């Protein structure tokens, strides 16, 4: 069995290719599952990328927020 992964940016082209491949009995089209990130995963990525703000006190935070 040979497996091929295609990345197609134009949805019209993807539809055309799916219709063409459906004509072959030996071809199976399956969707790939996207792993959705949880809020925790996104927060950990923010910390790793340095997209966090640190305050010395609650008063300082409210002062900076306006």
Structure in a nutshell:
By secondary structure, the chain is mainly alpha-helical. Helices cover 47% and strands 0% of the residues.
Can you characterise this structure?
This protein is an all-alpha fold and 66 residues long. The chain is built from 3 helices and no strands. It has helices at residues 11-22, 39-49, 58-65. The longest helix has 12 residues, at 11-22. The chain starts with 10 loop residues before the first helix and ends with a helix. The relative contact order is 0.07.
Note the main attributes of this structure.
mainly alpha; 3 helices; 66 residues
Order of helices and strands: HHH
What's the number of helices? 3
Helix content: 40-55%
Low-confidence stretches: none
Assess the beta-strand content as a share of residues.
Answer: under 5%
* DSSP E strands, number: 0
| Gross geometry | rod-shaped
List the helices and strands and how they pair.
Layout (H helix, E strand, L loop, with lengths): L10 H12 L16 H11 L8 H8 L1
């Amino acid at each position: 069995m040979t497996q091929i992964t295609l990345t197609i940016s134009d949805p019209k082209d993807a539809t055309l290719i799916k219709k063409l491949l459906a004509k072959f009995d030996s071809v199976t089209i399956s969707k790939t599952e996207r792993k959705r990130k949880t809020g925790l995963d996104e927060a950990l990525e923010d910390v790793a990328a340095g997209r966090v703000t640190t305050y010395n006190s609650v008063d300082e935070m409210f002062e900076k927020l306006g």
